[in-house]
Amino acid sequence: MWRSILAVLAFVASASAVSPVGVLSQNDQTRLGSLFTAGLASSDVASIHYSAAGLGLLGASIPDAQGACGRVKKNIDAKNAESVYHAASAAKSLGNCKVDVAGADSVLSIAEGADSKPIYFAVAARKALGLPVDSAAAAKNLVSVIQGNKVSIASHGFALLAASLLDKSAGVKPVIETIEDVVNYADEYGGNILQFLHYDQDGLPVTAAIVNGMFALSAGSPAGVKSEQVIMLANYFLRSRHTGSAADAYFVLSSLKAIAASKYSPMTMSLVGASSVPASKPIIKVRATDVLDQAVSGASVTLVTAGQQDEDELVADAKLKAGANGEYSIDLSNKNAPRGAYSFKFSASSSENKFVELEEFSVDINLVGDVKISSAEFTIVDVDQGGKGKATSLTYPKTHSAKLSADHHQKLALSFDVKDSEGEAVTLHQVFVQLTHRTTGQEIFFVAESDDARYKFEVNLGTAAKESFGHNSGDYDMTLIAGDGLATQSVAWKFGTIALSFPSATAATSGKAKVQYGARPEIQHMFRQPEKRPSAVISNAFTLAVASPILLLLVAWMRVGLNFNNMPKAGLNGILFIGGLSAIMLLYAYFWLGSNMFSTLKWLAIIGVPTFVFANRLLSNMATAELSEK
């Protein structure tokens, strides 16, 4: 119960922000029709069922219906209720296809305590085959299922589907009353999508079962279900419309049809035509439809607001003029709107109560216009002498007839204005000057930058000779390229030809060309010379000094009278202790000769623990022996 309350509160808080995320367009429906047509050729009975039913929902003809009918009869499993359900449903959708199932009455019996899924298969198959249905018994079982302690969300879905096929007087009211709670158990994603998940399985079949069942069971108006929830469920199916499975395509199409036919049918809107509209004739067109791309009758569309960011509104609360096929338009010519990017917000409603009002539909539209180049001037300046140089006036869109010339001691400059149809200066996103070598086809690009509403381009031929031109002399065509998202057309103006003269590459490097590739000189590595070793006398003296503690140990043992008289009393523990102690001494010697600390510590732990145990037992035995002697 607490989850239902939280779900309701969440919907109330976000209701104003929920709107359809799209529409199942005619192109989408055509693609789904192709999936259904391909699915008919399958030998899988379920695929044929969903494909034939899907084509029926689209109102399309079924190709080779008799061939599909033959595959259904051949591949039906007459002992499996689910297979019989798909075969009977497929035959009904194909038309003129009769499926005979031996022992169907027994296979499709409704067992006491059965789950809602086999009950739905049995009821739907019986109706498709024309067999009698015990509605009262089926309803009783369904009520028992949904009132159980371990009922799943999938069981609820099939219970709704099965109940929708039974007589309303058969006692299905308890099933109908669960619709509100079931919908509140849906999982929400992104604030605008609802779906039902069944463990780790795909949620599409379960969600489709619940949506189709609740609308069929409640005549399109399920009590307690909010319009925002229906829109969010529709968004889930719209998001899933790009499926590649015939079964999933059927689930999407059947669910959206159920939603569109309900009393909570969401209105949606789409822009007609391109998002770029001429500023000289700013007619904006939109289309108001349901989620199946069908025009909404009796609709009223309002342009709530339109304007540029941080600018005054261009228009507000203006009604759009209705046209054919659900189209609505508004002419903004009298607003004298300049070129620019605008944000338009629409709302829509319908005189028919079945449609849910669309509170906001936002779309970005560019008002575009013509641009032209004016006051263009091309200048060749001597770098050493400075000054303004020789200027040549250019007229857009004409090409300067005389061929110009320049060398590496000069620089080229181009300046021009860009204006719209009203003569106002505009700034474009991309402006380049392209120089193309007539013989080699080499293309060099330079960026023209805006400086106080006037564009300028400048290049020093001396510094650019190597990096840009590669010392490639010859005739170059000069083209001004300009483009912008708010321009009706881009500019590609060939304004002249120039002969450029560069020094040769060898002359520019003053001598032999530098070799960039080839074998490099061999690197001779110098290794450190070994240090001089000490003399043999010093080495022997150091060895004796290191070994002297052992000699001292032996002398000390002799003075204290080392003996093995008590060895018989020590027994086996004494032998093992001495062996372990000797092993530890040998381990120390091995460590000194070449082992490492980690290996030594590992072996010391292995040898030291039993040595300690044997030593403890040895001392205990000796103490016991001394006490017994006294």
Layout: helices, strands, pairs:
Elements: H1 2-14, H2 26-40, H3 45-58, H4 65-75, H5 81-94, H6 104-107, H7 116-129, H8 135-146, H9 153-164, H10 173-176, H11 179-184, E1 187-189, E2 193-195, H12 204-217, H13 227-239, H14 246-260, E3 265-266, E4 268-271, E5 276-278, E6 283-289, E7 299-307, E8 313-319, E9 321-322, E10 327-331, E11 340-350, E12 355-356, E13 358-368, E14 371-382, E15 390-394, E16 404-407, E17 410-420, E18 430-437, E19 443-447, E20 449-451, E21 454-460, H15 461-467, E22 474-483, E23 491-501, H16 505-508, H17 536-560, H18 567-593, H19 597-629
Parallel strand pairs: 3-12, 5-13, 16-23
Antiparallel strand pairs: 1-2, 4-6, 6-10, 7-8, 7-11, 9-10, 11-13, 14-15, 14-17, 17-21, 18-19, 18-22, 20-21, 22-23
Instruction: Report how far the terminal alpha carbons are from each other.
Output: 86 Å
Order the strands across the largest sheet as they lie in space: 5-13-11-7-8
Beta-strand level of the residues, as a percent range?
15-25%
Count of DSSP-assigned helices: 19
Tally the beta strands: 23
Low-confidence stretches: 1-16
Largest sheet: 5 strands, mixed
Structural class: alpha+beta
- Rg over CA atoms: 45 Å
User: Quick check: average pLDDT?
Assistant: 86
| Residues in helices, as a percent range | 40-55%
User: What overall form do the CA principal axes indicate?
Assistant: flat
